[in-house]
Design a protein that fits this description.
With about 80 residues, the chain is mostly helical. About 40% of the residues lie in helices and about 5% in strands. It has one domain: Winged helix-like DNA-binding domain superfamily/Winged helix DNA-binding domain (Arc Repressor Mutant, subunit A), CATH 1.10.10. It has a two-stranded antiparallel ribbon. The termini are far apart. The mean pLDDT is about 85.
């Protein structure tokens, strides 16, 4: 999977946080929803601009980061 087709970072969108391309839904939001126990279907219902394939792509991206030891996108420092 080419994650560049799925994920974008733009300083003008959500403060530069990584989002699903064509939306303002952050990867952090999707992953937090999954961590809270939401199903893919529930996430899509909560965010109608998403498709199930995009949510699965976020999961694949997170898995690839762990398995392949890819660099994790920069995490902002809270002050």
């Amino acid at each position: 999977m080419n994650f560049n087709d799925l994920i974008v970072r733009d300083s003008k969108i959500c403060g530069g946080a990584p989002v699903i391309k064509g939306t303002r839904v952050t990867l952090r939001t999707v992953l937090a929803s999954l961590a809270d126990g939401d199903s893919i279907e529930e996430i899509v219902q909560s965010f109608p601009s998403l498709k199930p394939e995009q949510v699965k792509g976020v999961i694949s991206y997170a898995a690839a980061c762990v398995v392949d030891d890819l660099p994790i996108l920069e995490v902002p420092v809270l002050r």
